[in-house]
């Protein structure tokens, strides 16, 4: 149930590196009205403040994030429905092209029409007065992020295999940091830092701790995390259709409460 003192719902979207979190977030922002994105990446500490692990700076862990600042921003958003005056998500202004998302324009148009019909013709859709803030992040539901858990009303998780995650991560363009500098991942970073950290923080969600295996359905149900039922390897056409169906259902249930 949404707290009576808020005018904004927070939807968490998480998953392994390069699982399609940001692309999905941007697509949902464009499909649903009154929706904006807060990116966890906006809360990374400065490069000089990152700790070393296996001889490499570790930017893929909870310790690399300014968690109190993230919690404070979410608290403000829940109350005011916008970013605090002194902050904004630098990644929230980019539209998603068909070539980038690999989702047909006709699919997006059909999903927009579906949502428009829901908001105009159903009782729940008509009564939805909340804004939606999508919290896009690689690390949201683990115990190390407990300070922000109270702010998330709906939680989605996208699975992707080690192979798909590594191929996409290592094929990405270098990161442009807040100060304008460019950071290129050093050789071995994925296998030494990214994937081991993902396993450590998310093993509790999977049978035998195998993040390439089956999700513990009872555990994610208890934590109220919705997981894409089929392994799509981040194939966005199927993923965005699933997410739209889930969000319409979740919003309908929340309005009913």
UniProtKB/TrEMBL annotation:
Keywords from the named record: Hydrolase
GO molecular function: hydrolase activity
UniProt-listed InterPro entries: P-loop_NTPase
SUPFAM superfamilies on file: P-loop containing nucleoside triphosphate hydrolases
Name of the protein described by the UniProt record: P-loop containing nucleoside triphosphate hydrolase protein
Organism for this UniProt entry: Hyaloscypha bicolor E
